[in-house]
Design brief:
signal, LRRNT, little secondary structure, two-stranded antiparallel ribbon, Osteomodulin, 8 helices, secreted
Length: 417
């Protein structure tokens, strides 16, 4: 019995030690604490490359800086470089923006295995100066910045691992038939500020990009809507083109669309149910030639219709029925620089119970003179403090300008990078 008693005591002591260890561990610290950083939607955590093991200090190109706190990154930006330095094999992030680089040869990338991001923006790279296949060999590359260069063509070939490709502010006027093939993981493609026209899109280059969530085609030469966009699309930017018509049922297959920007085009008539989309939050149709409004989906929060030819805002067209169990979420309307002579009907506040701001600004009623409605800005749901401040400064509200609403116009700016 003495031996058994001693064993029992040892067992109890061991159990107490284990219990104390778990008691000191606060599970809430792991599961209830907000994460320090959440990756943007366009990163795919499953493609994380294996981090190599290397001795310290790590190698770094003489022209660049490799901070000890970020041993996988090499910073070569803003150094007036004309050529690419040799890249150590362990580097995952390479920053070469704001230099005078004209060519991308194969040699500096010979021993690179783990490279995941390259930033070549704001250089002088030309398409014919990129060695064939130099990017395709980088099998872990996820993000490639080539905006603000002198590219005439879409870079090809590219690695299948690529998720984000930024090509804005170049001179791209053509997309070869197979330019976008073999890129199954692309989620974000930026082609703004190039020379793309309708003939380039006849081959339906985006149709097979099954994971594409953001497509930027602003500031090009498009006259028609791009054909056969993938159903995965969530953010579409078509500002500053010459599009005059949206085909009926065009958005039928784009049910995931959250933000649509088509300001500065030539739109005149919108088919009534064009934007009957269940997830649409932002719709920007400012600076077109619209004469009347259209159906507003219940999910929409921000509507921009400034600088059009609208004479009256027909609330019945925007909201044909009221459903108390599924109310419209619209909170903001910008309607300045139209031809309105009277404010929106008070019926709008039954249809859109969440409306906080309607900005009327100046109206182009007469050809040679702009006029202003009695109240250029209407605001709802003010707190008592806000109400007192508004009463004290009502004259200031009467003189709100277009610039005062730039922040509202950029509501979804982070999605259009």
């Amino acid at each position: 019995m003495g031996i058994l008693s001693q064993l029992s005591i040892i067992h109890l002591l061991w159990s107490a030690m284990v219990f104390c260890q778990y008691e000191d561990y606060d599970f809430e610290d792991e599961y209830n604490e907000e994460p320090d950083h959440q990756h943007p939607y366009y990163f795919n955590s499953n493609t994380q490359a294996e981090i190599p093991r290397f001795p310290f200090p790590v190698q770094c190109a003489r022209e660049c800086f490799c901070p000890p706190a970020f041993p996988l990154s090499m910073y070569c930006d803003h150094r007036e470089l004309k050529t690419i330095p040799n890249i150590p094999s362990h580097v995952q992030q390479l920053y070469l923006q704001n230099n005078y680089i004209e060519a991308v040869p194969t040699e500096p990338f010979t021993n690179v295995t783990f490279l995941r991001e390259i930033n070549f923006s704001h250089n002088k790279i030309k398409s014919h100066m990129i060695d064939h296949g130099v990017f395709a060999k980088l099998s872990n590359l996820v993000q490639l910045h080539l905006q603000h260069n002198e590219l005439e063509e879409f870079p090809f070939p590219l690695p299948s691992s690529l998720e984000r490709l930024l090509l804005g502010f170049n001179k791209i006027s053509q997309l070869s038939g197979n330019a976008l093939e073999g890129l199954p993981n692309i989620t974000m493609l930026d082609l703004c500020n190039n020379f793309l026209d309708d003939s380039v899109l006849k081959g339906k280059p985006f149709a097979n990009m099954k994971n594409l969530m953001q497509l930027n085609l602003c500031n090009n030469k498009l006259q028609t809507m791009p054909p056969d966009l993938p159903s995965s699309l969530m953010y579409l930017s078509l500002e500053n083109n010459s599009i005059s018509y949206i085909p009926e049922n065009y958005f039928k297959r784009l049910q995931k669309l959250i933000a649509l920007r088509m300001s500065h085009n030539n739109l005149q008539n919108i088919p009534h149910n064009t934007f009957n989309l269940p997830n649409l939050l932002e719709l920007n149709l400012g600076h077109n030639k619209l004469k009347q409004v259209f159906y507003i989906p219940r999910s929409l929060q921000h509507l921009y219709i400034e600088d059009n030819d609208i004479e009256i805002i027909n609330v019945t067209l925007m909201c044909p029925s009221i459903d108390p169990m599924n109310t419209n979420q619209l909170t903001y309307i910008r309607a300045d620089k139209n031809k309105l002579t009277i404010p929106i009907s008070t019926y709008a506040f039954f249809c859109f119970p969440h409306i906080r701001t309607i900005y009327y600004g100046e109206q182009n009623v007469n050809a040679n003179k702009s006029t202003q409605l009695r109240i250029p800005v209407f605001r709802r749901f003010l707190t008592p403090e806000e109400y007192d401040e508004a009463e004290d400064n009502h004259e200031t509200h009467d003189h709100e300008t277009e610039e005062d609403h730039e922040a509202d116009d950029n509501y979804f700016h982070r999605y259009f990078q």
